From TrEMBL:
Coiled-coil region: 258-285
Official protein name in the record: CoA activase
Matches recorded under InterPro entries: ATPase_BadF, ATPase_NBD, CoA_activase_DUF2229, CoA_E_activase_dom, Dehydratase_Activator_Redct
ATPase BadF/BadG/BcrA/BcrD type domain span: 4-259, 322-573
Gene: fldI_5
Alphabetically ordered keywords of this record: Coiled coil, Hydrolase, Iron, Iron-sulfur, Metal-binding
Cofactor(s) annotated in UniProt: [4Fe-4S] cluster
Species: Clostridium formicaceticum
MF GO annotations: hydrolase activity; iron-sulfur cluster binding; metal ion binding
């Protein structure tokens, strides 16, 4: 008797056959190249040649590509995690943890025992390829190496270069930089292995315990470089790390073991018949967008596009210009005559060795033309332009944007837009009259580039030359989504498992690439009337046609499209050389000089950064000498966040109190290494860097670490209701205390809550209390504080004076640049990416936001609820720079920053009509791409004329701004006509609120549930990592607007706002911006503060009862919710909407639920827009309920009660007593309904206990109702089996809560699964949910 386990993944099929004693008798590991059914059939026939069919009694399947067999009920599906655990334990009885790294997934499983697995902890990678085998494959492919040779290379490595492991694009950038420094391939590959492992530790393992011994499984477990890195990074000895004999087959083994144990019978003959008859069952669902066939949009666009000018063989002394474009995947050379005609070109693979590629290209040109060429000028462009330029004696070195634009305009001066897609880079360029006026480059993901297509073609066994033609044969392009490699690959696997044809997948891939490009690179930038599609990807007709399907027939493929960068470099060389003699060193050059001096951008020396930066740094460090008196205790201050501004104050404060003060160094290579080692979760980069600075101070043996929380700030001119620090500034000390384990290291954290808005009295009390805790009396602390405050005032005043003086000295036609970002983004040499130094080296003056009178510039009319003071400063700076003829803005944002996802839109709105450069900073260790952007921006400004008169005082330009009040209504009473008001979809709350409004005589309706088409619309408005809830509301609103008839246009939208500090409090203002941009000025926006709803004397009761009623409906069985909704609507219509009738309905709901049996009970909590809109959570909770489990929704009435309670604690106005009484009445309502629902109640046992828990864990935190969300998780529900949190991907509050939750004593808590959503369905989330539900 045998049992068979089958594991089908994206690239491979694994089989394991065991006997009755669990002994492995047969294994197979087969690459299916997209032919899942055929390869599986062959594998089974092969098995039958050695074993009798009838002897194989049991079987089960696992893996992302296997569900089609489970759906056909031929085989039972086993969750991947379950299969992995059982497979690992069948070969190694005593294991502590499991590391699984495969092609698309990375898992860490720990805290399990053979006898009891209920406490199991499971972590799975997000939807990014970093940390998976796919990440390695992408980089290996670029180097033109075979994956199976990886181990051989790493065995010979001598060093470990630092490579960013967070993303393929970053890794590629770093690798190029290292190659240009002469780092060998062996070392690069070992560096990649370490990058993957460090990312795996930070992003997957996080703070989970490392229980030994560890079993390492998955396809990557064959890689000796990864094994070496894992042992080193995790600190494992030989006996603590186990790699099974066939690590790639562990999941299949587990499936076989479970099938035998649970007697899962199989009829292999029937299975074979099923595989034989399986057809493509992929269908379009109602909520999906059908993609058009590609063939009708054109054929053969790339043919006959590389026809060189013929040259008479006898002609000598050819006067030519040479352009060389050195990219990450290809190196291109163009030889051009004086008439701009191309006489020869070379398109070569870079293969990780740009010097060799250029040498080969020059050699080929020499062989073709001999000594007949007289070189008049040479230009280089691309990522390797400086190294190669120096090596060959280039006359000009230009950025890729300028070069690509020059080629396009030379070919056709009517072109106004360029789409350029290369191997791992993509660019958008906007032209007006032949001049670059705007541009963008891909930032984070490689999924919109040529290398992505090549990778998928290899895995699907499609020759890359046939790919484009194959896509034209498809009648049904499959919507594979967009975003990351891993995410799209998971969708491909799911499609293959349903029997989808390869050509349908290939055509779907073309759409994925194009959508990624249009949404992530082009974004909302203007697309003109004539588009050139340039770059090697233009060979692919499928991609060309996908573009035309989405942007129309105005896209053309120009001549020499694959080498336009090199062509542009040659033309620029010709234009700039004039009569000068070329410096070209000839077709044979000395490669020995190419090992250029290493230039790390992380440590620019201050003395080279220009006078302004020097002066500011001196003022910042005034009186600081880093000397340590051994008789005194030492306070360490990390040079991070707002301490880049406040250090002058606290340096003096602590010194006056008699302490040594030690400031961490400027961010450097070691800081980044330490940050990667200690940071957890995907916070913004500045927050990640805190870990490195703190680690440095820990290593220097400080006694105290000073890292205050910044709750509120002061901005003298601010008119907003609140002035908050961002979510991370409020939570940073708690996060650092959690991740750095300061208590265990004997270091005391000094983390006073700074709340400047609370006034001088509060600040004095807080800092005097700090002095008291340090053993100082009130007088000592008071004097120290006064001196500190004076030092800060002096610092700020002198910095602004420096800026004024610099502007006054500007020449009449001189351009200067203003770095606009937060203080730490300006002064930190990593966060400013070396931009100030680069500009100064180019001969330009560089100012900062601190040098402008932004703190006295009022933007409250345009942004009445801008509750981030740094946001007010940034927008003030934008308005001043817009007015100043000599100043140009460089706006620096941070990847993963919630406020920046909003401010980026506002900044663009303010700068409309004036060029500016926006750069998003993340974990680049090389500034190649950033400096390309800077050079391109500077070059694009060379045609901009500056007024020929002396610049005036900066305040003059501030005063010139015309401020217009934004059109947003704060209540329904402000509506002047009887227009229909649409409410966002939150079931069933929106429907109940609609009925209340209708009862008041206000015409109202609810927007339909979000769907795929509305999300597609919403994504067209996004430009960075906006929260999914924002994307959805934008899409829902504009889908409604686009579908209106002329007589229906008199409408309004109800989008409530909050006082901050999360990004969602800005949704109304951002939506107003987008409505205006699209010409919907007449559409009204009603955006009351949710905090103010409690003030509504006539309506507060009804509003609150509707929330309570909605919670009751959500508590009911899913099949009965609409019934109760209709019953409550009748109460409203009949003027009987009161607490007593609701109590009677609650009792009915309870008795009905008690009759329903449920397997498991799960509490769900999170962002309301995600919780109460099923599409927004991928119908996750619906599906869990379909499996006869009980979902207990966190009540929205309780959520709002908590917000109002916090609000009243901060606001003591004349109505406070009345409002407290009102809130107490609402608390009684909750109590009454909770009693009716008895043990099925979703409410906390005591609301005061919730407040107490929140005060203990997060006393000073606003935004996203984070205090409530954490307190609810910790509130100790007894009748649940687990908890799921749900929020938009990148929501800062969710990231903070997840991280802080890891510090809770989990012995007394239920298991928690954290889920984030962005509108893309993915297999990893399904695996997480299945595993969670299986083990709780």
């Amino acid at each position: 008797m045998y049992s068979l386990g089958i594991d089908i993944g994206y690239t491979s099929i694994k089989l394991v056959l065991i006997n009755s004693n669990d002994e492995i008798k047969h294994t197979a590991y087969l690459l299916h190249k997209g032919r899942i059914q055929e390869v599986l059939k062959e594998a089974i026939y092969n098995l039958m040649s050695s074993y009798v069919l009838e002897d194989i009694k049991f079987a089960a399947i696992t893996g992302t590509g296997s569900k089609f067999l489970a759906e056909d009920q031929e085989l039972q599906f086993i969750n991947e995690v379950t299969a992995i655990v059982e497979g690992s334990m069948s070969t190694e009885k005593k294991i502590g943890s499991i590391i699984e790294i495969g092609g698309q997934s990375a898992k860490y499983i720990t805290e399990f025992r053979e006898s009891n697995k209920s406490g199991i902890k499971i972590a799975i990678n997000s939807d990014c390829s970093a940390g998976t085998g796919s990440f390695l494959e992408e980089q290996i492919s670029r180097l033109d190496l075979k994956l199976e040779d990886y181990s051989v290379f790493t065995e010979k490595a001598q060093s470990i270069p630092r490579i960013a492991g967070r993303c393929s694009v970053f890794a590629k950038t770093d690798m190029i930089h290292h190659q240009q420094e002469g780092v060998c391939v062996e070392d690069l590959l070992l560096g990649l292995a370490y990058a993957l492992v460090k990312n795996y530790k930070a992003a997957v393992i996080k703070k989970l315990p490392i229980k030994k011994p560890i079993v390492f499984i998955g396809g990557v477990a064959y890689n000796l470089g990864i094994i070496r890195a894992l042992k080193d990074v995790l600190g494992l000895d030989e006996g603590e790390f186990i790699v099974p004999q066939t690590p790639g087959n562990t999941g299949a083994l587990g499936a076989a073991v479970i099938a035998k144990k649970d007697k899962m019978k199989i009829d292999l003959q029937k299975l074979l018949e099923c595989l034989e008859n399986k057809k493509d069952s992929h269908e379009v669902k109602d909520d999906e967008t059908r993609l058009p066939e590609l063939k009708p949009f054109g054929e053969n666009d790339s043919e006959n596009k590389h026809l060189c000018k013929s040259i008479d063989n006898g002609k000598t002394n050819l006067e030519c210009y040479l352009g060389i474009d050195i990219g990450s995947t290809s190196t291109n050379l163009v030889l051009m005559n004086k008439e701009n005609e191309i006489i020869a070109y070379k398109y070569l693979k870079t293969l990780g060795n740009p010097v060799e590629a250029v040498r080969k290209g020059l050699k080929d040109l020499k062989n073709e033309f001999g000594d007949r060429i007289k070189m008049m000028g040479v230009g280089t462009t691309g990522s390797g332009r400086y190294m190669i330029g120096k090596l060959i004696g280039a006359d000009i070195i230009k950025d890729e944007i300028t070069a690509q634009a020059k080629a396009a305009v030379t070919i056709d001066d009517r072109v106004d837009t360029i789409f350029e897609i290369g191997g791992q880079d993509s660019k958008y360029i906007r032209l007006e009259k032949g001049v670059v006026t705007d541009f963008e480059m891909n930032k984070i993901c490689a999924a919109g580039t040529g290398s992505f297509i090549e990778e998928q073609a290899k895995k699907l066994n499609i020759p890359i030359g046939d790919f484009g033609e194959m896509t034209l044969n498809s009648h049904y392009p499959i919507n594979l989504g967009e975003r990351c490699t891993v995410f799209i690959e998971a969708n491909i696997a799911a499609s293959l498992s349903k029997g989808a044809k390869i050509d349908h997948i290939a055509s779907g891939l073309c759409y994925s690439i194009v959508k990624n490009y249009l949404n992530k690179v082009v974004g909302q930038k203007k697309i003109g009337n004539k588009i050139f599609f340039q770059g090697g990807v233009a060979y692919n007709q499928g991609v060309i046609n996908a573009f035309r399907a989405l942007v129309g027939d105005k896209l053309f493929v120009p001549p020499f499209f694959s080498v336009t960068g090199a062509y542009g470099a040659a033309i620029l060389a010709k234009e700039e050389m004039l009569e000068e003699k070329s410096q070209f060193k000839g077709f044979d050059f000395d490669t020995k000089v190419h090992l250029i001096e290493k230039q790390k951008h992380h440590q620019p020396k201050a003395e080279g950064e220009g006078k302004i930066y020097n002066e500011i740094e001196k003022l910042y460090l005034k009186g600081y000498d880093a000397s340590i008196d051994p008789k005194k205790e030492t306070v360490g201050i990390p040079r991070v966040l707002f301490l880049h501004k406040l250090f002058p104050m606290f340096h003096v404060f602590f010194k006056e109190l008699g302490f040594n003060v030690l400031l961490s160094d400027l961010t450097k290579e070691e800081t980044i290494r330490l940050s990667q080692e200690h940071s957890l979760d995907e916070t913004c980069y500045p927050v990640k860097l805190i870990h490195g600075h703190v680690a440095e101070l820990i290593n220097k043996k400080v006694d105290y670490l000073f890292l205050p929380a910044l709750y509120t700030m002061t901005h003298p001119i601010s008119k907003t209701r609140q002035d908050y620090g961002c979510a991370y500034m409020q939570a940073a000390p708690a996060m650092i205390h959690q991740t750095m384990e300061l208590d265990k290291k004997g270091i005391k954290l000094l983390s006073p809550v700074l709340s400047f808005k609370f006034g001088k009295k509060y600040m004095m009390k807080t800092l005097l209390e700090l002095g008291k805790n340090l053993g100082k009396n009130t007088i000592q602390s008071m004097l120290a504080l006064q001196k500190g405050m004076q030092a800060l005032k002096t610092f700020e005043k002198k910095v602004e004076m420096i800026g004024q003086e610099a502007v006054e000295k500007l020449g009449t036609d001189e351009k200067a640049f203003v770095i606009i970002t937060r203080a730490y983004g300006v002064t930190d040499p990593v966060l400013n990416m070396g931009i100030p130094k680069k500009l100064m080296n180019m001969g330009y003056k560089v100012l900062t936001l601190s040098n402008l009178p932004a703190h006295t510039h009022d933007t409250s009319k345009e942004y009445p609820n801008m509750y981030w003071p740094f946001g007010q400063h940034i927008l003030s700076g934008a308005q001043i720079v817009k007015q100043h003829p000599n100043l140009y803005a460089i706006y620096i944002t941070n990847h993963g920053c919630g406020p920046d996802t909003i401010l980026s839109h506002y900044f663009r709105e303010e700068m409309k009509g004036k060029p500016y450069l926006s750069i998003e900073v993340d974990e680049h260790s090389s500034s190649v791409g950033v400096l390309t952007r800077v050079e391109a921006f500077v070059n694009s400004l060379k045609t901009k004329e500056v007024q020929m008169k002396k610049a005036e005082d900066l305040k003059t330009y501030s005063n010139r701004v015309i401020h217009k009040e934004v059109n947003i209504k704060n209540s329904f009473n402000e509506l002047k006509d009887k227009r229909i008001v649409y409410l966002p979809y939150l079931y069933p709350y929106s429907t109940l609120l609609k009925e209340l409004l209708m009862k008041k005589g206000i015409r109202a309706d609810v927007l339909p549930m979000t769907n795929a088409s509305s999300v597609d619309i919403g994504r067209k408005f996004t430009i960075t990592k906006e929260y999914f809830s924002l994307t959805a509301i934008l899409g829902d609103v504009f889908k409604k607007l686009y579908g209106l008839k002329k007589d229906e246009e008199n409408i309004a939208f109800f989008i409530p706002k909050s006082e901050g500090t999360e990004a969602d409090g800005q949704y109304d203002r951002l939506l107003r911006t987008k409505l205006n941009e699209k010409g919907f000025h007449h559409v009204e926006m009603i955006a009351p503060f949710i905090e103010d709803l409690l003030y509504e004397d006539e309506d507060a009761e009804g509003i609150y009862l509707s929330l309570l009623a909605g919670d009751m409906i959500r508590t009911a069985h899913k099949n009965h919710r609409d019934k109760y909704l209709n019953e409550i609507i009748e109460l409203i219509k009949n003027n009987d909407f009161k607490i007593n009738p609701l109590k009677e309905i609650a009792k009915k709901i309870y008795h009905e639920i008690r009759l329903e049996k449920s397997k498991k009970r799960v509490l769900v909590i999170g962002e309301p827009m995600v919780l109460f809109n099923d599409f927004m959570n991928n119908f996750t909770f619906n599906h869990i309920e379909d499996e006869e489990n009980r979902i207990i929704y966190s009540p929205l009435s309780e959520y709002m009660w908590f917000i109002w309670k916090d609000f009243l604690m901060k606001n003591l106005d004349k109505k406070a007593q009345i409002l407290r009484q009102r809130l107490s009445r609402f608390e009684y309502y909750i109590h009454d309904i909770s009693e009716c629902l008895a043990d099925e109640s979703p409410f906390a046992k005591g609301l005061s206990d919730l407040i107490a828990t929140a005060d203990k864990r997060m006393k000073y935190y606003t935004g996203g109702n984070g205090r409530y969300r954490q307190a609810k998780i910790l509130s100790g529900f007894n009748n649940i089996d687990g908890i799921i949190t749900a929020a938009s991907m990148y929501e800062n509050t969710n990231t903070i809560l997840n991280l802080l939750y890891k510090g809770v004593d989990e012995k007394h808590l239920k298991p928690v699964l954290h889920l984030t959503f962005d509108g893309n369905k993915n297999e990893n989330d399904k695996t997480k949910i299945q595993s969670f539900m299986y083990y709780i």
